Amino acid sequence: MSEAVMSNPVSSVDPVLEARNLCKTFADGASQIRVIDQLNLKVLKGESLAIMGASGSGKSTLLHLLGGLDEPSSGEVLISGKQVSGLSEADLCQTRNSDIGFVYQFHHLLPEFCALENVAMPLLIAGDIALDEVRAIAAQKLKEVGLSHRENHKPGMLSGGERQRVAIARALVNQPKLLLADEPTGNLDHTNAMSVFEMLSALQQEHDLALVLVTHDDSLAKHMGSVKMLQDGGWA
Ligand SMILES: Nc1ncnc2c1ncn2[C@@H]1O[C@H](COP(=O)(O)OP(=O)(O)OP(=O)(O)O)[C@@H](O)[C@H]1O
Ligand SMILES: [Mg+2]
Asked: Residue 48 belongs to what domain range?
């Protein structure tokens, strides 16, 4: 085996995200429901994937597994070739914070903090950047989502679309390789949904992100690089 392979088993051609034979079973009283069943997936740098499927088909469950927010019953998730399931809790937190951005249907912003502070939060948690620089990076991300003029607004003073833009800026502030979005426009009217989605797509392309987007909306899914339907725990 060459020295390079021994010292660095993670290769630059590894998919940003890979799932191998992923299974997730939940207990339902005395029985078990297998929500994800032997599922495989690869998403490369710069690729965008829409995941669709009926309500209850397991889309959110899958996204939680892919983002290391929940443990699979069996199978593996790899981020840039690195197994997530083998990580200690501290390493898992660090991987989630630095490599993965999450956006949810409901923004999950902290209500008592302004937009700038919400965007800065992942940098503050990482804890290795001076405060002045944190402020500058967060302000730049808010600018990228068109919200420089809302820096000091708390979530309660923002519109639904603006809140989702702040949530997207927060998800991207640590320059992750992977963005996981679970119905990020599901709470918005059509016009706002399109506008937030277009901004998300533009950022994905600009930063060459791997993007996995769960959506019920065909008109959004068709703009993604590929579309997969989740059915009976696997791809339809
Ligand atoms: N923690 C849990 N314990 C038990 N069952 C669960 C748990 N989480 C999810 N489930 C079940 O797993 C199935 C898939 O749920 P999930 O939330 O992943 O669906 P979904 O495709 O995201 O649906 P929606 O489109 O409505 O958001 C559902 O039957 C749900 O009841
Ligand atoms: Mg869901």
From this structure: 3-228
Question: For residue range 7-55, what is the model confidence (pLDDT) as tens digits?
Answer: 445 566 789 999 999 999 999 899 999 999 999 999 999 999 999 999 9
Q: Is residue 233 part of a domain?
A: no
**How many domains is the chain built from?**
1
The two beta strands, 178-182 and 100-103, are parallel
Spatial CA neighbour of 36 closest among 8, 13, 66, 2: 66
48 in contact with ligand 1, CB cutoff 6 A: no
21 lies in some domain: yes
Q: Would residue 57 count as lying in a domain?
A: yes
219 within a domain of the structure (yes/no)? yes
CATH of the domain at 183: 3.40.50.300
Under the phi-then-psi rule, with left for phi > 0, alpha for psi from -120 to 50, and beta for the rest, what region is 87?
beta
Query: Which numbered atom of ligand 1 lies nearest the CA of 64?
Result: 18
Residues around ligand 2, an ion, CB closer than 5 A: 59-60
Neighbouring CB atoms inside 10 A of 48's CB total 20
Ligand 1 site-directed mutation target among 33, 35, 214, most atoms within 8 Å of CB? 35
pTM of the model: 0.93
Instruction: Give the ligand at the shortest distance from the Cα of 232.
Output: 1
> Do the Cβ atoms of 42 and 51 come closer than 8 Å?
no
